[in-house]
Design goal:
Elements (H helix, E strand, L loop, with lengths): L1 H17 L4 H18 L15 H10 L5 E3 L3 E8 L3 E10 L7 E6 L4 E5 L9 E9 L5 E3 L2 E6 L5 E11 L7
Parallel strand pairs: 2-9
Antiparallel strand pairs: 1-3, 3-6, 4-8, 5-6, 7-9, 8-9
Helix pairs in contact: 1-2
Length: 176
């Protein structure tokens, strides 16, 4: 069982490193993550096995499914325009919790290594605000860029995707 989880985790990691904005790769990665979660929660690969006892982890999963935390984004897409190759762009995605429970961000990840998200770590109370600061490094990039940031939280839906858009010009001199 642990061998299967290790192999699936390794495959998911390799797929994540090899793709940068590939929608098909994102679907495969999401499917692998789902399979790993099934294995970790005692489910078999062909289907879900119900257990009669309710554990703390299954209660946490149930509470996430019925969570009343909710994102209200100022914007889910940011166009950074045209930049010189090697330039670094930072952008802050801001949100408000317009739900009735604390909003907890569990993780943030980017579609490629050129983009690094950093999220609010503390729970955001109803009516409170939070942010996800994203750093895009255009070193080695050229042409149209569209990295995607995936946010996993105790909301419904559980995942939200944020996007950066822009163009990296190769013959320009980066701004200091």
């Amino acid at each position: 069982m642990k061998t299967k989880i290790s192999i699936l985790s390794l495959v998911a990691f390799v797929l994540m490193l090899s793709g940068c904005g590939n929608a098909e790769m994102d679907k495969r990665l999401a499917n692998l993550e789902r399979r790993v979660n099934q294995l970790e929660n005692g489910n078999v690969a062909r289907g879900t096995v119900s257990t009669p006892s309710t554990t703390a982890s299954s209660q946490a999963v149930e509470s996430n499914l019925t969570s009343n935390a909710s994102f209200q984004w100022e914007s889910t897409v940011h166009n950074f325009g045209t930049i010189a190759q090697g330039e670094v762009v930072n952008y802050t995605f801001k949100f408000t919790n317009n739900g009735t429970e604390d909003l907890r961000i569990q993780s943030t990840s980017a579609s490629c290594g050129c983009t690094v998200p950093n999220h609010t770590k503390e729970p955001v109370p109803p009516g409170g605000t939070g942010e996800i600061v994203v750093r895009f490094d255009s070193k080695g990039k050229s042409g149209q860029q569209s990295p995607v940031i995936t946010v996993v939280a105790n909301t419904n839906p559980k995942q939200v995707r944020l996007s950066l858009r822009g163009f990296v010009q190769t013959n320009a001199v980066p701004q200091p």
